[in-house]
Amino acid sequence: MISIEVRAGPWRHDVIIGSGLLANAGELIKKRLRASRCTIISDAAVAPLFADRISRILTSTGFQPTLITIPSGEKSKTLEQAGAICDQMIAAGLDRQSFVVGLGGGVIGDMSGFVAAIYHRGIPHVQIPTTLLSMVDSSIGGKTGVNTRDGKNLIGAVHHPSLVIDDLNVLETLPRREFNQGLAEIIKHAIIADAKIFDTLQEWKASGAPALQQLIRRNIELKSKIVEKDERDRSGERAILNFGHTVGHAIERAGDYREFLHGEALSLGIVAACTVSIKKAGLSPAQRDAIVDLLRRFDLPTQLPLNFPRQKIFDALPHDKKFKGGRVRFVVTPRIGSAHVSADVTMEDIREAVKQL
Ligand SMILES: NC(=O)c1ccc[n+]([C@@H]2O[C@H](COP(=O)([O-])OP(=O)(O)OC[C@H]3O[C@@H](n4cnc5c(N)ncnc54)[C@H](O)[C@@H]3O)[C@@H](O)[C@H]2O)c1
User: Fold this and answer.
1) Distance 280 CA to ligand 1 centre (A)
2) What is the dihedral angle through the alpha carbons of 289, 152, 44, 93, rounded to the nearest 10 degrees?
3) Residues 138 and 214 in one domain
4) What is the pLDDT of residue 328?
């Protein structure tokens, strides 16, 4: 079991990583939170796998949990769904002393965190991520939120969890495609800030829990260091985490959140960002090829299907939050292990890169 302290502004919380941690979830929470009532928010695929167990463990530790289950997938990340959850929490008698446990992937983490941020103006949030993506990325940094008709994560709050419990055993039921999309975020981390992770992944063999535990730890440390420097996403340092996301989000939206998983759309966005980076940041074509090879190694898409309507991607681009007042803040990489925000990228550069996908 590894424990990492994550810092963000004055906020501190632990992330515990290990195998079989669900059994200790009650004790781990009890050390940090005194409340009795809580709600477990989960989705329709994850709840049948783990919710009963968590519920029993929490009850035996003295908590009074209520389970709220929502449909799986991105389509659930709406303001309406957040309102419906709050209504159920009120009906279950949760008050300002209560807390929320998010049990699921990034959709549940973003939603349960958002509900925790707004319920009684903010109650504690414990995350039990069940996807690789949510362990290495969405559970760290405090960003919570929901989507609107006009784009992803447009409504939200920064609300850091009180505790994150990463039990590697829960990944055993995760479909391979879902596991691989988590690797897209890990590859992104490697490109923007850690060439050593990139090397590790190039030699990666599905070598069991210890290697995975170390990979998750390094990614959490990397993301939390970036967040620590720029918690509110103001100075531009945190913005490098958006590498690949400008085009990635547009592709996700163009595919109506069905055609590509988040990490798959990100993989395509990374390839487009590399094309822009060759032109605007001096990335070498050899490094771009190494990045493409690595994405392919984990069965991540690096080309759009021939019949995919590219116009829909162009239409989706200006909706992205990163287009401030018509100006593009695009993250580029000059070499693997480094990234910065460029003000020198035009919409035409981005369109050209999308055309090449
Ligand atoms: N807050 C942030 O900083 C941040 C960062 C990155 C991504 N995100 C968000 O995260 C979301 C994507 O997260 P995700 O990839 O984890 O998707 P997800 O939460 O939709 O989970 C993927 C699928 O796997 C299923 N699943 C989850 N755990 C499982 C398990 N252990 N066994 C079997 N099935 C399981 C889920 O039911 C779902 O169908 C997006 O909404 C994205 O915007 C947020």
Assistant:
1) 32
2) 140
3) no
4) 75
Question: Is residue 168 located within the same domain as residue 187?
Answer: no
In short, whether 43's Cβ falls inside 6 Å of ligand 1 is yes
Task: Domain of residue 69: give its range.
Answer: 2-173
Is the minimum distance from the CB of 228 to ligand 1 under 6 angstroms?
A: no
Residues of the chain with pLDDT under 70: 207, 318-327
145/10 Cα distance (integer angstroms): 21
State residue 229's pLDDT score. Answer: 82
Indicate the length of the chain as a whole number: 357
Atom 18 in ligand 1: which residue has the minimum CA distance?
105
Yes or no: say if 354 and 310 are a contact pair by the CB < 8 Å rule: yes
The structure's pTM equals 0.93
Angle at 214 between CA 212 and CA 218, to 5 degrees: 120
**pLDDT computed for residue 319 by the predictor:** 56
pLDDT for 234 equals 75
Both tokens of 308, joined, read: 């995919």
Answer yes or no: is the C-beta of 69 below 6 A from any ligand 1 atom.
Answer: no
The string of DSSP codes covering 108-133 is HHHHHHHHHHHGGG---EEEEE-SHH
Pairing mode of beta strands 2-8, 330-335:
unpaired
Contact 162, 139 (CB under 8 A): no
Where are the extended beta strands (E) located within the chain? 2-8, 11-18, 37-43, 64-70, 99-104, 125-129, 143-148, 151-158, 163-167, 323-324, 327-328, 330-335, 338-342
Residue 20, judged by CB atoms within 10 A of its CB (0-12, 13-18, 19+), counts as exposed
The answer on 163 and 182 residing in a single domain is: no
Tell me, what DSSP letter sits at residue 23?
G
Give the domain-ending residue among 173, 189, 214: 173
pLDDT at residue 324 in the model: 58
Same domain, yes or no: 198 and 150? no
